[in-house]
Every structure is written in structure tokens, then in C-alpha cells.
């Protein structure tokens, strides 16, 4: 029987309707640094400061399998403002939240620094692999997430677990590197282990993949991605030498553990033959031309079937 729709029983919070749908809201579409980045005078950062292109906060995604219970994938340094801007995550009582858990996909600053904001004796589960938990445990400042309040749950690769009620997740290895602040003399930029992971989400009959950082698309990943209802994928750079061209440093995307979007080895070409319901780029570096809505590069990506993520965008698989 159809229920009368009031504001309180909107699509977002109607449990009957929402139960069937995996919901995702991009909290932050930019890579580390955000757009604009505090110290960057590149074209995009200047345009964002002038309000001529939309600013974007740092890498994070909110997900729910039922519209009531939510998880946050990656705790960005911007999490405070991101949660304030997302009605689904607002408190429903004095200390009652729809947030059940936080999951981090690597130990990079843009994905863990926001944990410090979540320190107000608020219970939730922090999910990560053993390797990523170790990185967090090694840094005593994170003991601000008090033992006995925040449950730190170690997740083995390729093992499904309940991320939130009605939402199952599985972590899988993605080629990448250790966080910048843990790099030694030599760095394996395509390391496969539990330091960089992707997330497979399942709710109802939907299967969605979240891979915000990926150095190279190997056969395991291609197999996993094929047939997904939605993919949110590493869109850090348009081209590998983008930051060098802009005069912003000497690092290539490959050195940073990120495959680029364009070119024959890029993500658009490499996934052209895969069946994917909805393709979305996330984790864009502030130099990426796709962040300019009127750029040729954005038009090209969209023509090839990709959505350019942006803050607040809801993705429906
Ligand atoms: C990355 O995604 O490459 C890192 O988050 C860079 C950084 O540490 O800022
Ligand atoms: Mn990052
Ligand atoms: Zn910039």
C-alpha cells in the first residue's frame, strides 16, 4: 500500500523504499589538499578561490544499505564540514547518530586525519586491515579515539563483513604504496598487500566498488570490476606528468601510486571493454582539468561514459 509522503517520510528516510537501495553520497571529491589547496596557485586552485569553478573537499564517501544506518569510507581532514553538509549524517538525538562505522582504505593523511575530529566519546566501529590499523596504532594521537568507545575492527582481505546494518563490505588489495610519511629510501609504488585496499559494497542485489587510489589495473581488479553496478575510481590525475607541467613539483602520478585517467594506459581506456553500470571518478587532484566543468578533458571523460564526482553528489547505482 502506498504511504502518504510527507517531508519526514521522504525518499531519504523512508525505510521501506530505502531498504532496497544502496545509497552513496560523495562527501569529498578531491584528493589530498582539496580544491583549492592552501598553498597552491595553480589555475584550478585560483579559479576555485574566485568562485569560478566549484571547490571540492578531500576524499570521502558516505554509504548506506537502508537509508538509516550510514558508514563513512575514509575520514578526510574536512570531515567536520562534510558531515554538516550531509543531512543523512546529522544527529537524530542529543548524542544519537546515523553513523555506524568508519572505514579507511589506506593510511594516507587525507584518509585518516579526520579521525581526530571524531573524538568526542562517540561510539562507532573503525574498520581497516591489520596493516592500516597498525599505522594508526603507531601514532599515539589517535588514542583520542578512546578504547572502549571506538571499536577498532581488523578486517582480513577478501572476507565479507557487515559494514553497517543491511550493508556488506569486502576489502581487496589494490596496487599502491605506503603513505608518503612512511616512505623509506626506496618505495614500491605498486605494492600489493593490505596497505592499500578497495571496497566492494553489497546491499540487496547491488554490487558497487570504491577504489579511490590505484597504481595499476591488474587482471584481478579487472575481473572484480566487470559487471559492477557502479564504480567509484581513482581520478587523481588526467595525465601522469600533470604536476610537473604545472610547475608544482617533480612527482609523476606513477610515483604517487596513481594511474592517470587519459592515454592508452589510463583508466578510461583500460576499462573501456568492461561492463559497469555507473562510472564515477573520485579523489581528483586539484590540478586535474576535469575539475573545470567547461574543460575539453571533462567533456572527453563524460563522452566516454564517466561522471566526474563532486561534493554532495548522490550516486545511484
Ligand atoms: C595520495 O593519494 O597520493 C596521498 O593522499 C597524497 C598525500 O599524502 O597527500
Ligand atoms: Mn590521497
Ligand atoms: Zn592547485
From TrEMBL:
An annotated GO BP: pyrroloquinoline quinone biosynthetic process
Keyword tags: PQQ biosynthesis, Transport
Pfam families on file: Lactamase_B_2
Pathway given in the UniProt record: Cofactor biosynthesis; pyrroloquinoline quinone biosynthesis
Chain coiled-coil ranges: none
InterPro entries: Metallo-B-lactamas (IPR001279), PQQ_synth_PqqB (IPR011842), RibonucZ/Hydroxyglut_hydro (IPR036866)
Occurrences of domain Metallo-beta-lactamase (ranges): 70-284
SUPFAM superfamilies: Metallo-hydrolase/oxidoreductase
Record carries keyword Transport: yes
Summary of the function given for this chain in its UniProt record: May be involved in the transport of PQQ or its precursor to the periplasm.
UniProt record similarity statement: Belongs to the PqqB family.
Name of the molecule in the record: Coenzyme PQQ synthesis protein B
Organism: Donghicola tyrosinivorans
Lineage, uppermost ranks: Bacteria, Pseudomonadati, Pseudomonadota, Alphaproteobacteria, Rhodobacterales
Amino acid at each position: 500500500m502506498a504511504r502518504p509522503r510527507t517531508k519526514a517520510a521522504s525518499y531519504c528516510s523512508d525505510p521501506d523504499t530505502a531498504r532496497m537501495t544502496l545509497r552513496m553520497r560523495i562527501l569529498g571529491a578531491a584528493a589530498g589538499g582539496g580544491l583549492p589547496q592552501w598553498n597552491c596557485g595553480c589555475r584550478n586552485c585560483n579559479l576555485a578561490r574566485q568562485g569560478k569553478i566549484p571547490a571540492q573537499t578531500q576524499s570521502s564517501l558516505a554509504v548506506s544499505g537502508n537509508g538509516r544506518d550510514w558508514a563513512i569510507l575514509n575520514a578526510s581532514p574536512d570531515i567536520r564540514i562534510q558531515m554538516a553538509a550531509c543531512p543523512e549524517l546529522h544527529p537524530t538525538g542529543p548524542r544519537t547518530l546515523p553513523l555506524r562505522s568508519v572505514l579507511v582504505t589506506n593510511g594516507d593523511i587525507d584518509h585518516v586525519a579526520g579521525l581526530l575530529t571524531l573524538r568526542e566519546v562517540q561510539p562507532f566501529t573503525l574498520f581497516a586491515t591489520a596493516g592500516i590499523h597498525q599505522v594508526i596504532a603507531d601514532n599515539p594521537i589517535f588514542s583520542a579515539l578512546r578504547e572502549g568507545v571506538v571499536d577498532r575492527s581488523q578486517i582480513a582481505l577478501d572476507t565479507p563483513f557487515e559494514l553497517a546494518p543491511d550493508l556488506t563490505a569486502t576489502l581487496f588489495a589494490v596496487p599502491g604504496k605506503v603513505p608518503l610519511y612512511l616512505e623509506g629510501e626506496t618505495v614500491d609504488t605498486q605494492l600489493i598487500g593490505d596497505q592499500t585496499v578497495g571496497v566492494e559494497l553489497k546491499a540487496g542485489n547491488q554490487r558497487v566498488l570504491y577504489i579511490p587510489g590505484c597504481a595499476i589495473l591488474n587482471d584481478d581488479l579487472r575481473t572484480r570490476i566487470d559487471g559492477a553496478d557502479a564504480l567509484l575510481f581513482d581520478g587523481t590525475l588526467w595525465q601522469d606528468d600533470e604536476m610537473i607541467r604545472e610547475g608544482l613539483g617533480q612527482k609523476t602520478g606513477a610515483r604517487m601510486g596513481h594511474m592517470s585517467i587519459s592515454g592508452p594506459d589510463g583508466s578510461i581506456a583500460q576499462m573501456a571493454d568492461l561492463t559497469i553500470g555507473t562510472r564515477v571518478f573520485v579523489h581528483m587532484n586539484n590540478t586535474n582539468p576535469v575539475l573545470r566543468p567547461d574543460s575539453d578533458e571533462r567533456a572527453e571523460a563524460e563522452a566516454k561514459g564517466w561522471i566526474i564526482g563532486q561534493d554532495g553528489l548522490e550516486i545511484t547505482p
